[in-house]
Every structure is written in structure tokens, then in C-alpha cells.
């Protein structure tokens, strides 16, 4: 290739070579500038799916106009050779600059901020990196940081661009560097933003210590470490690393995506606090996991557990049903796995909590699964939290659930998830100030998560403060513009404020992001009817009823639309049907905004009495 030309580009030298392709220094003879040219390797260049993918992702990356992301100038083809023309970044990679003992903590943060800013820009354009590592981050002579080599990038929402489908059939192809790959990728799940965040955690760990968090010398050993073993704490290796940075890296390296920060913006805010040397939140009183070697574990079981939790965290109908199968398969292979039994309990709880599955025998199954887990590892906060949710959503037993949450918090006062769900119970039973305090506690324990912030906004609305709720939810949007619960909650707040068209827009967006679930159709139908668009609302009601003919649709969702079109008697009849069938959604009738105007209705008050929600 050296000395040859590709169109207007003269190849001057080879800059690098990897499993996917080669990168060359070239001269643009038309514009008289030096550029970098990347082409697929000879193995992949003859495969149409990889050529098509190269084009799609180059076009997507070209839309990421950001100073910390390498610029794509063009994608072209000459004599059947596809290639990408990129900005030439002159400097050194972090891999080459990294001292054996790591950078000083201040330098780690200084370099991390532009890396995360680059990820934020790429994610905002729907592009995942999927191969973030020190060798793919350049630092120029004037100390500018550039994230390069999006060669494994994936365009979000484009299944054809996901290389997992072809990796197994491409001999010798290794996607990414194993040590930087998130656990969910090792078990065959598709990449998401939080997969990039895990890679970022490995990069920050390496920048701070000069070594990787996991150092297995064989592929099976390294995979077991990544999937099963806790990483060492930064402060154990570098005592001078601030606790806030240690906690951030630990969160990024969480095995389950739900334990990682919710957005790049949250990571940036935390890095900025590190830079300002703000003190860390109150230290955890829970025992800190140590980096000890895990006992031998069947990798099939480990993979199923990781895949199950990954799918559980996605919380869609398909992902929850598949997660349940993963956990059940583990118990079939080895019934002595407490995490699998708790996974079954948590998944059954969510399937009903989200209105996906009818209550049926779920309460019995949840309690049986938790009993298995407790028998194997003793009483735990996680087990009690699962029992508490089952108690109030299936039996409407508010007192038992309250006691279980309080006991769970005694066992593990640092569980953000338990504080969050206890806050939900307190809000549902109209103890708003106490509930909001627990949401705030959950935020303090896990400042990198969005769920408690968004839910605090939702229950602030239920407490009768819609303007304040709207402001909180706008904050969520600033952190992650694709977080669907915030659009749902804000749609309700906007409806209360009388901004009906804005409410429709917000709930339409929530419906799109959530995958047109029955729950979102119900709330969208409500605000559409409230806005006077009766025929559109009734069309949504017809869609729900059509679904109900073949699948489970909670009566509560149909009642929402009927309330929106002012069919009050029918709405109350659906609520009665919801209570009779033990529809878990009916738990919300004391606080949910569609029922505020029903408070003086005798039939509504009777429902509250039967649910023990009327003082």
C-alpha cells in the first residue's frame, strides 16, 4: 500500500494494524493536508456485511461533531476497496504515556473529563464505542484529548450493525480487548451505553494504578474474574486516590449495568466534584468487598446469572421473560444458587409490578423463591425487599410491607434500592414527606443513578407540587434525554399544570422510548382525552382492548383512558374490576393524578376503604 493512491489520497506510511483493519498516514493531494485512512483487513474486506457496517458507522460517527472525538472527513471506495478518511491526530496514546505506577489522581480526572465528554457526544448521536481502552485515547502535544478508533462502534437501534451476529462466523475475530469488555458482553448480550461505562471504569482504574483491575493470564481465567470477582478498590492500591474517585470507579465497574451510572452527564458531574475536591458522601457502613479469588464456579451458571440480571435491568416485557428463563435454568442446573432464586423472585415481582403478567400465583412463587434463597444464605436485605414488594403489590398489605422494608434497612442501611422501594410504599400510602426523604437517601447513596431522582419528582407531583416536580424532571432530562420514565412522569405533571398538548408530546415520547407498552398507552390515552382529543383517546382504548383479547392488559390502564374522556361511571367500573382481579396497578388509586377529580365519588371512596387506603 505504501506509495500507492486511493483516489486523491497518497498513502505515505502505515500507522497501525488490528484485527479489524489497518490505518495509514496519507496525503490529501486535493486539499493538501495529511489525513488518516482506515480500511478493513483483507479478511473482512471481502465480506459484504462488514463493508456495509463500515459505511453505516462512518456516516453515524461523522455526525458526532465534537472536539474530543476524531473527525470523519469521508467514506469512499476505490477499485472495490472501501475506506474511511479521518482527521490525523498527532500525539501519543494514553497507553504509551502511562507511567508504571499510574498518573497522579489529579491527572486521571483531568484526562477523564474529555474522554467522558467524547462518550456523551457519541452516545447522543446514537453511537457506542465498544472498544474504549488507553490505546484508543490520544493526547496531542498541546494536551488535547481525542477518542479514536471507533472500529468496533455500534449504531444504537440498528440491529444489522451489531457485530455479535457475525462474530461467531468470522474465524479468529476478537471483538474488543477482553480485559476492557463489560460482563454482559462476555455472555453474548448486545452493547449499550453502560457497556462503554464499564470500559471507562477499567481505563480510569488503569490510569490511576498502572495495572488492570483483573489480570488473569488465560482467557477462561480472565473471563471468570471479569464476570465473578469484585475488583480491588483504587484506594487499596493508591491510598492517595480520593474516596470520591474510588467510589466512582467502583460504580463504573459494577457487574450489573443497573449498578453503573445512568448517563455520561452524571459521570461528568462526579468528575467535576472530584476536580473541585468536594468531600465524598458519608462513607458506607457496609463491609467493603475485597479482591479475593472466587471459588471455582461453573461458567455456564455464571453466564446465565449475569445475562439474567442484565436482562432484568432492561425491564421490558421480552427482557423480563427471558431473564426469568435464565434464572430458572440456573436452578435446574444447580438448585443451590441463592442469586438465581432471588432473581426469580425479583423478576416475578417486576412482571406484575409493570402490568405485564397477571398476579395469578406470583405471590406464592415469589415467597417460595425467597425461602430457597434464605435457606441457602440466610436472611438478607435483598430477600426482605423482595418479600416487601410482594406483600404490598399482591396483597395490599401495607403494614407487613412497611415492617419488612424497615427490617431490610436494618440489615443493609446502605442499599439505595431498598430506600427507593420503601419510598415508593410510603408515597403510595400518602406519607409523602417520609417517602421523598427515602428517595433523597437513595440518591445520596447512589448519586450516579437516575431512578430515585425521577421517582422523587413523580411523588413530589403526587404531593401536590407539580411545578417543583416539573423542575426535578427537567433535571433528569439534562442528565439523560432518553430516560423514558421522566417523560412519563413529566407528562402527568404537565397535565396537572393544564399544559395538555405538552403533556401529550411528553407521553408520546415516553411511549416511543418504552416500546408502546400497555401502561404507556393508558397514560397517553388519559392525557389525550383530557386535551379534548376524544377520538384519538378512544382509538388508544380500542388498541388496549384489542390486546386484552389475546394477552393480559390490567383493567387499570383502560380505566385511565376512560377517566380522560370523562366516562366516569365506566372508569369506576374498570377500577372495580381491577380490584376484584387483584390487578397490582390498582395500588396507585389513592395518589395517581387521573383520580384526583374522583375524590368525592362514593364508589371511589369505597375502593379506597377496601384497599385500606382511606384514613
Furnish the topology, listing elements before pairings.
Elements: E1 5-6, E2 9-17, E3 21-28, E4 33-40, H1 42-45, H2 48-62, E5 72-78, E6 81-87, E7 91-93, H3 94-97, H4 105-124, E8 127-128, E9 137-140, E10 145-147, E11 154-155, H5 164-167, H6 183-186, H7 193-209, H8 219-228, H9 234-237, H10 243-252, H11 264-275, H12 299-314, H13 317-333, H14 338-353, H15 362-377, H16 381-394, H17 398-411, H18 416-428, H19 432-445, H20 451-462, H21 466-479, H22 484-496, H23 500-514, H24 518-530, H25 534-548, H26 555-564, H27 568-580, H28 602-610
Helix pairs in contact: 4-7, 4-11, 7-10, 12-13, 12-14, 13-14, 14-15, 14-16, 15-16, 16-17, 17-18, 18-19, 19-20, 20-21, 20-22, 21-22, 22-23, 22-24, 23-24, 24-25, 24-26, 25-26, 26-27
Descriptive report:
With 615 residues, this protein is an alpha+beta fold. Among the domains are: 5-87, Phosphorylase Kinase, domain 1 (2-Layer Sandwich), CATH 3.30.200.20; 93-280, Transferase(Phosphotransferase) domain 1 (Transferase(Phosphotransferase), domain 1); 516-615, no CATH class. Helices cover 55% and strands 9% of the residues. It has 28 helices and 11 strands. It has helices at residues 42-45, 48-62, 94-97, 105-124, 164-167, 183-186, 193-209, 219-228, 234-237, 243-252, 264-275, 299-314, 317-333, 338-353, 362-377, 381-394, 398-411, 416-428, 432-445, 451-462, 466-479, 484-496, 500-514, 518-530, 534-548, 555-564, 568-580, 602-610, and strands at residues 5-6, 9-17, 21-28, 33-40, 72-78, 81-87, 91-93, 127-128, 137-140, 145-147, 154-155. The strands form 3 sheets. It has a 6-stranded antiparallel beta sheet. A 3-stranded antiparallel beta sheet has the order 7-9-10. A hairpin with a 2-residue loop joins strand 1 and strand 2. Helix 15 runs antiparallel to helix 16. The N and C termini lie far apart (81 Å). Residues 159-176 and 283-296 have low confidence and may be disordered.
